[in-house]
Amino acid sequence: MLLIGAGPVGLAVAKAMLRQGIAYEQLEADDDLGGNWYHGVYETAHIISSRKTTEYADFPMPAGYPDFPSAPQMLEYLRSYADAFGLRPHIQFRTKVSMCLPLADGRWEAELEGGERRVYKGVVVCNGHHWDKRFPTYEGTFAGEYLHSKDYRHPRQLADKRVLVIGGGNSACDLAAEAARVGRGCDISLRRGYWFLPKTIFGVPLPEMVPGWSPVWAQRLLLRVLLRVVVGRYENYGLPKPDHRIFEAHPTLNSELLHYLKHGRIRPRPAVERFEGTRVFFADGASAEFDTVVCATGFNLSFPFLPAGLVPVEGSNALLYGGCTLPDYKNLYVVGTAQVRYGFGPLMTPAAELICRLIKLQDEMELPIGMVLRESGARPPTTHLLDPHRALRQMRLARHTRALRQMRLARHTLPLLVGKERKLRRRLKPPAPSVIERRSLDMPNQSSDLKVF
């Protein structure tokens, strides 16, 4: 199997594949592991989820780590994880995948950046979703410094500057607070109302205060009560009222934004309308001069090494079955496209084990396992936001059949998918090769630079 990426998700999948005896090669374009924590975050970054809700379920963070570890601590943790489970020797660094194409026999052909081509049994995609920068579109052009939050690295970039931050997510609030400390001033442009949640309440990290067994409506009620007591009304800070319920968008956890708003170091603004030189005009008719505009406007979900449209994406949501498969292709697993409400570790550990089970089950099937999941009643997600507690419960259900029969949920469990596939095979004709498959068949499969794994 080809495993693309050696970030937090790719490492968890590699560890599960190694433990379950699935042969793989892990290719990483960078010169070290860690993904976004190695090359993509600013030097003052800390995690927004707590240590306990971020660490892998089978590898606790050091007891000496704070509740919210820093970027260097997160990178050291990921390196320790890789070393503890012997993952590093299986990673080929500075090896970028340019294209992956499906073959008619279910295998996949990968072309590397240098032109080398290899054939693998399958592909597991773990390329992350915090790298393809999304910029907003406005009338006019800003004449000052215009950058994406991904390009921000250190406070010196904002020192003694008039800064406008566009966006209301976690990176936007971090950068606004940074500009409030070192810049001449900072404005933050919000086109909608957001839920700004403190990182701690009563000295406890907020993600640890929400009981996982409680339904979402109860979690929302608890948080609203706590926010009213600890924070008050957002309107008292000059912020617009949230236009959605808690958890309907990715929560913003930041304890500094409201602090600097009350100290006058950050000024809230409505949506940007246009640029004229270094002057920015806002939706309320006001305008102001800025030296630097930072767009903390998120990222596109993309897979540049797969043919365009092979993985259907609506907005930030990848339309995958079982969280990682497609109904039209065998042996392709796209992992880590969802954004977990809190930390990745507790969810990623069992998810990686489940993906390995899907890989092994696919070996017993002729039809794509994504098709079997679809015909068994599975549906693609309607949002990219993931409730970790609900997802953990679903994974536990998928692993077992006892008692589920009485609940009439057995048809959704993994052990029964092989039987479902046999019935489908008798009913369905094998799908004809797609255009992509036909094109891949036209490529020379026996050449001096083609390696088969």
Task: Write a structural description.
The chain is an alpha/beta fold and 453 residues long. It folds into 2 domains: 283 residues, FAD/NAD(P)-binding domain; 151 residues, FAD/NAD(P)-binding domain (3-Layer(bba) Sandwich). Helices cover 28% and strands 18% of the residues. The chain is built from 13 helices and 25 strands. Strand 16 and strand 17 form a beta hairpin. The longest helix is centred in the last third of the chain and has 18 residues. About 5% of the residues have low confidence.
User: In which range does the helix fraction lie?
Assistant: 25-40%
How far is the N terminus from the C terminus? 8 Å
Mean pLDDT: 89
- CATH class identity of the largest domain: Alpha Beta
Count of alpha/pi helices: 13
| Biggest beta-sheet profile | 5 strands, parallel
Q: What's the CATH architecture of the largest domain?
A: 3-Layer(bba) Sandwich
Low-confidence stretches: 401-412, 437-448
CATH fold annotation of the largest domain: FAD/NAD(P)-binding domain
- Number of structural units classed as domains: 2
Principal-axes shape call: globular
- Superfamily (CATH H level) name of the largest domain: FAD/NAD(P)-binding domain
DSSP summary, beta strand count: 25
Strand content: 15-25%
Strand arrangement across the biggest beta sheet? 3-2-1-7-22
Structural class: alpha/beta
Radius of gyration: 24 Å
